[in-house]
Amino acid sequence: MKIIKHIQSMQRFVNELSRNGKTIGFVPTMGALHEGHLSLIDEAKKHADFVIMSIFVNPTQFDKKDDLKKYPRDFEADEKLAKSRGVDCIFYPTAEEMYPKKSWTSVSVSEITNTLCGTTRAGHFDGVVLVVAKLFNIAKPHFAVFGQKDAQQVAVIKQMVADLNFDVKIITAKIVREADGLAMSSRNLRLSKENRERALALHRGLQATKFAFENGERNVENLIDISRKIIETGQIQIDYLEIVDVESFQKIERIEKKALIAVAAFLGDVRLIDNEILDIS
Ligand code: AMP
């Protein structure tokens, strides 16, 4: 497995791969890899001749300095995991390599960023979209795999790809959970034992809403209340708990077509997100 740290080396390398007719699959991550990230590699390997994973804790997408500082980093462990799962190349740049000076160009997706993480994490999606645009121009993949865990992020990236005509296919992989239902996240490592236990109420809450939905409840206020009651038993500070249209990410009052219930919540100073699709069909 190759490790490349410089942008130019990466570009030269992928140009050569493409000249040789290889299909490049790309998995962008911030490292602290877990089974969720590894499932994206498995998905990429189904379609690609060559899988590139980026590991870059992107400073521009963190709205809180402390969260950036405390973000778990362990490159040696990541390297082993990526290799064991068949990644062909890791792109592992420094922040100075990616941002030698402040970017004067911004990329911003509107409308679908008006809700959920778009409103509660100022500037977050601008940071995500900018780094993903840069990474697409560096790794030049034919397709990239993102997790449904960050549902709004995938929607925002798909929008950017469509609006700016990036020649990259976006594949969405389903959420990987711990055996007890907690959505895997690099931030789970920072949970105390007590908060790890409390966090289970997130998935339990969303599932209860999904159950009620499957049994015919369509009123959004009622569906949210079902989740909220369960989540609050975990003494969890809810950042948002909303049901939105799965495409526009706009709030709705009744579910008439495919929707998404999404939650963000703080356990101590750790912010976790989770979601469930509420599919009408
Ligand atoms: P991150 O390193 O948190 O930026 O995540 C990198 C990619 O992994 C994103 O596309 C995430 O949506 C995806 N991801 C993170 N956690 C999970 C999970 N539990 N299941 C599936 N994909 C995930």
How would you describe this structure to a colleague?
The chain is of the alpha/beta class. It has two domains: 2-173, HUPs (Rossmann fold, 3-Layer(aba) Sandwich); 186-276, Pantoate--beta-alanine Ligase, Chain: A,domain 2, CATH 3.30.1300. It contains eleven helices and nine strands. Strands 1-4-3-2-5-6 form a six-stranded parallel sheet, with helices on both faces. A three-stranded antiparallel sheet has the order 7-8-9. Strand 5 (143-147), helix 8 and strand 6 (169-173) form a beta-alpha-beta unit. The radius of gyration is 19 Å and the shape is globular. The mean pLDDT is 97. Adenosine monophosphate binds at residues 29-30, 36-37, 39-40, 146-147, 149-150, 173, 175-176, 183-186.
The small molecules bound here are: adenosine monophosphate
User: What gyration radius follows from the Cα positions, in whole Å?
Assistant: 19 Å
CATH architecture heading of the largest domain:
3-Layer(aba) Sandwich
| Strands, count | 9
- Helix segment count? 11
Topology overview:
Blueprint lengths: L1 E3 L2 H13 L4 E6 L5 H13 L2 E6 L9 H6 L4 H10 L4 E3 L3 H4 L18 H4 L3 H16 L3 E5 L3 H14 L4 E5 L19 H6 L1 H15 L5 H14 L3 E9 L13 E9 L2 E9 L3
Parallel strand pairs: 1-4, 2-3, 2-5, 3-4, 5-6
Antiparallel strand pairs: 7-8, 8-9
Helix pairs in contact: 7-8, 10-11
List keywords for this structure.
Rossmann fold, Pantoate--beta-alanine Ligase, Chain: A,domain 2, globular, 281 residues, single chain, alpha/beta, six-stranded parallel beta sheet, 11 helices, three-stranded antiparallel beta sheet, binds adenosine monophosphate
